[in-house]
Design goal:
The protein has 357 residues and is mostly helical. 66% of the residues lie in helices and 0% in strands. The chain is elongated and about 65 Å long. Keywords: Membrane, Transmembrane, Transmembrane helix.
Length: 357
């Protein structure tokens, strides 16, 4: 178990959860509130679990009668956001890397992109690569040698972090039924639809909207399409001896272009909604890091689209370096950024499925 009993963030979250448990007005709003009402007391692991169930839709805050200026001064979205961030940092591995990113988000993204882009340009200065398209700039072997470690290392880090998280919240043996329930909720983002089904009021207390849910859908499915594009290209290369470049109507190209469009548009909408939302209802200490990561993810999609559009021009080598630099930054920083919340939230949904009667 993590030593959080003396942590002020957890103590404040515990105080607010006890008041919410006594009130129960928001019981039907999302998965967090049924989880709250199942408990009589809140251990640190319980608070970590509830915090990772919360989607920060803010409906509970705007419906609450105990927010300021009431003496209880409840702000549960912020309390859970702070707890959620601390739980990711506490479970992350290696922990110092997560702390570095949270303190220096924009510079971490920038330095990683520039470093990988510079490495690519250095490799390009070596004897010319053989191949067509992108492989004329960087050989297939060089790409694999560069990106395989950058892909595998974050997976190992996430695995260690999730293992720590699962132990901390008292997770049990996972069954197919639990996993199916959690994936169904994650795939539909049910908890962003609000208890009434009209959406959440993330941007404004007076307006319910599905915009945030749709933006998250665009980013999530855009990312999965891009991953499917890379996977199909790998299968064609190694399984059918059909190396890139591929034509427009090929599976890798169609999946990649549609995924890139969804990811770019989704990130733009997310950044717009964040700019409209009340920053006092989230964790102000991670606002910059969250914005930087969403911006990075959007840049990955946009630079990929630009690379496709200008792939036959003299700008291609520079665009390829920037795009692959952004992809590398995304991979390396994933365990320490908001991207990690997708994995922790899925684990939280699995645990919630185990705990429901």
């Amino acid at each position: 178990m993590l030593n959080t009993s003396s942590n002020e963030t957890y103590e404040e979250a515990r105080r607010q959860l006890q008041i919410c448990n006594a009130c129960r007005y928001c019981e039907g709003y999302c998965s967090a509130f049924p989880a709250i009402t199942r408990l009589r007391a809140f251990a640190d692991g319980d608070i970590t679990q509830i915090a990772n169930l919360c989607h920060n839709c803010r409906g509970c805050y705007y419906a609450c009668q105990y927010t300021e200026p009431h003496e209880f001064a409840l702000n549960l979205p912020q309390a859970l956001a702070k707890t959620r961030t601390e739980s990711w940092q506490a479970h992350s591995w290696p922990a110092p890397l997560g702390a570095v990113f949270q303190r220096n988000a924009v510079s971490s993204v920038f330095i990683t992109i520039v470093a990988v882009a510079a490495l690519m340009l250095l490799i390009r200065a070596l004897p010319a690569a053989s191949g067509d398209g992108f492989y004329a700039v960087l050989s297939h072997g060089a790409m694999v040698a560069l990106f395989a470690p950058l892909f595998l290392f974050p997976l190992i880090c996430l695995f260690v972090g999730l293992k720590r998280y699962w132990k901390d919240i008292g997770g049990e043996r996972i069954t197919l039924a639990h996993l199916k329930d959690a994936i169904s909720q994650a795939a539909t983002l049910r908890n962003l639809s609000g208890g009434h089904g009209e959406g959440c009021n993330f941007e404004s207390q007076d307006r319910f909207s599905q915009a945030r849910r749709h933006a998250h859908h665009a980013v999530m499915y855009g990312f999965l399409l891009c991953f499917a594009s890379t996977s199909s290209g790998t299968l064609l290369h190694y399984g059918f001896d059909l190396p890139a470049p591929y034509g427009f109507w090929s599976l890798p190209k169609l999946l990649g272009l549609s995924g890139g469009l969804l990811m770019t548009l989704g990130c733009i909408v997310m950044l717009t909604l964040k700019a409209k939302a009340d920053a006092a209802l989230s964790n102000p200490e991670t606002h910059g890091a969250d914005q930087a990561f969403v911006g990075l993810l959007g840049f990955v999609g946009a630079s990929g689209l630009a690379l496709y559009g200008l792939g036959s021009t003299a700008a291609m080598p520079a665009l390829l370096a920037l795009h692959l630099g952004a992809v590398a930054a995304f991979f390396v920083l994933t365990p320490y950024t908001k991207m990690a919340h997708g994995f922790f939230r899925l684990a939280a949904l699995v645990r919630d499925a185990q705990q429901r009667p």
